[in-house]
Amino acid sequence: MEVTGLSIGSRRESTDEEIIALARRADALGYDTVWTGESWGRDVFTVLTVIACHTSRIRVGTGIATVFSRTPALIAQSIASLDIVSKGRAVLGLGTSGRTVIEEWHGLKYERPLERTREYIEIIRMALAGQRVSYQGRIFKLGRFRLPFSSVQEHIPIFVASLGPRNLALTGELADGWLPTWVHVDHLPAMKKQVEAGATKAGRSVDDIAVAPQVLSYVTRNSEERAQAQRLLRAHMAYYIGGMGSYYYELFQRYGYVEESQRVREAWASNQREKAAALVSSDMLDKITIYGDLEECREKLARYRAKGADMPVLGFPHDCPLEAIMRTLEALAPRD
User: Where are the beta strands (DSSP E) in the chain?
Assistant: First the structure.
């Protein structure tokens, strides 16, 4: 059977009723994991607890919890608690986020993200194993921390949201899964090779690491919906290229969209948001998102699988209507 994930936004326009309805439908349709993030929305553990209480089979994953906004001890407490509430369905997705989010929104210094991720994973693993954690790292120094309760799962999977070369290698070395976003379908094999290199160096197999790229998706039925999908996808992509610091801008540069991303960034910096969105090329949409009629979307989803995705995760652009999300959810549901 195909393995497919779902990413649900938790911004203020998403009501509890909508989130629950989407999660319950995904559960019934056989989706593997529902992920949710928290960059500027409600906190991830609260939303996933709500979802866990209204579903029975689907796994609940943090997509992502950043390694800057909580201590590793608190993340261990939170994910173990979620695992108990969900009766063994919790998945921990970790990431560094970006400098804009961490320094401007959280007021923290964005430094040594790679080293910090390593220490988080090591500490969380020790805590979830029931060990008394006495840890002496370069960033964290813990003494005598121990969880007074156990998670349901003996081993809670840890996914890492990585895109840069060194972080990809770290993912291969330490993680159970890879949870990237904005993945160009033709670049997926080369990026997976970097994950594999890290795994090989650590004496692991890349086959033990689930590849779960999040891909913005939108199934359309007519030309009007197709135009709306393009408009929303372009606006979402432009926001990340132009408004989220250098991280995603540099990613699109590595994909070869040098002139396109430069123009998008310049327009965004000039507060010309519609122009920035319009400068996102058709090739960028076709290679980094899934949109179009059912047949097109099924074909694009299959291409991600053929290029190495074990569990494509369907996401949706900002301001995507609930009806379109539900339609896409139904249309792209995993098949036997």
Answer: 5-7, 33-36, 59-62, 65-66, 90-95, 133-136, 141-145, 158-160, 177-178, 210-211, 214-219, 290-292, 313-315
269 and 315, same domain (yes or no) = no
336 found inside a domain: no
Q: Within 10 Å of residue 142's Cβ, how many Cβ atoms?
A: 18
Q: What are phi and psi of 308, to 5 degrees?
A: 125, 5
Split at pLDDT 50, 70, 90, the class of 274 is very high
- Looking at the domain assignment, is residue 84 inside a domain? yes
Closest C-alpha among 98, 90, 33 to residue 69:
98
Shared-domain flag, residues 28 and 72: yes
Q: Which residue has the tokens 């194993």?
A: 129
Which pLDDT score, from 0 to 100, does residue 41 have? 79
Average pLDDT over residues 232-260: 96
Tell me which residue range forms the domain holding 91.
Answer: 5-220+290-331
pLDDT tens for each residue of 36-46: 998 777 899 99
Token code pair at residue 69: 């906004």
Regarding whether 266 and 171 lie in a shared domain, the answer is: no
Residue 298 belongs to some domain of the structure: yes
Nearest to 246 by CA among 68, 98, 66, 69: 98
- pTM to 2 decimals? 0.97
- Check: CB of residue 133 under 8 Å from CB of residue 104: no
Q: In 10 A of CB 135, how many CB atoms?
A: 17
Q: Determine the pLDDT at residue 159.
A: 98
Decide if 107 is inside a domain: yes
pLDDT digits (tens, 9 = 90+) for 153-188: 999 999 999 999 999 999 999 999 999 999 999 999
Nearest to 230 by CA among 295, 271, 272, 290: 290
CB neighbour list of residue 129: distance below 8 Å, 6 or more residues apart: none
Question: Can you tell me the distance from the alpha carbon of 170 to that of 174, in angstroms, rounded to the nearest whole number?
Answer: 6
Question: Could you tell me if 324 and 243 lie in one domain?
Answer: no
